[in-house]
Amino acid sequence: GENVEQHPSTLSVQEGDSAVIKCTYSDSASNYFPWYKQELGKGPQLIIDIRSNVGEKKDQRIAVTLNKTAKHFSLHITETQPEDSAVYFCAASIGRALTFGSGTRLQVQP
Amino acid sequence: SAVISQKPSRDICQRGTSLTIQCQVDSQVTMMFWYRQQPGQSLTLIATANQGSEATYESGFVIDKFPISRPNLTFSTLTVSNMSPEDSSIYLCSVLVRGSTYEQYFGPGTRLTVT
Question: CA-nearest residue of chain B to A30?
C-alpha cells in the first residue's frame, strides 16, 4: 500500500518568515495530494490540495508543489503569522481513501 | 464543503463497555469514512461506511470490534466494542461531498478515553 513520509516533525519560525514542509510518497499511482491543518481539539481542516496533472498551486500565503518524478510534494507558507501555529498533515490518495503523513508541528514565534 | 457534526464530542468509558459515535452531515455525500487518531499521532483509516451494505474495513480493523452503520446518505455510526485502554483515541468522521471528486472534509472528532 501507499506510504507517506513527512518532514520535519517540528518546525519553529519567527513571525513573517517562511515555512516549508516536505512529504514523499511511495505509490506512483497516487494522484491527489491534500494538506490539512489541525488545531488543538479540532478536526483536520483542508487548506490546499493538488492533483497529479498540476505542478504547483497557490492560494494567498500558501502554496503546494508536486514533483511526480521524484514522488515528493511540499507545502510553503509565506509571511507566517501566530495563527498559523498548528499541526500540518500531508496525505496521498489513489482514489478515495487518504494515507496521511506523520504530521509537522509548526510553531510561529511572535 | 459540508458541515459535519459528531456526538459525543468526548467520553470517558470503562474497559469492557461499548460506545457508539454518531456522524451527521448537513448535505448528501457520496462517501463517508471513519479514521482513528491515537494520541499525538497521525490519522489511520478504519473503514469506509457504505450506504445500505457492510462497511469496507482496512487491514487491522474488524467488524466485530468496530461495527459501522450508514442507514442513509447523511448519517453514520461507529461503535467501539469491548473497549480497552488501547482504544483511547480521537475518532473522526470524514466525507466526500457530492460533486467533489477527491476533497474530504472532517468532523470535529470524538475524544475517547478508556479507563
Answer: B102
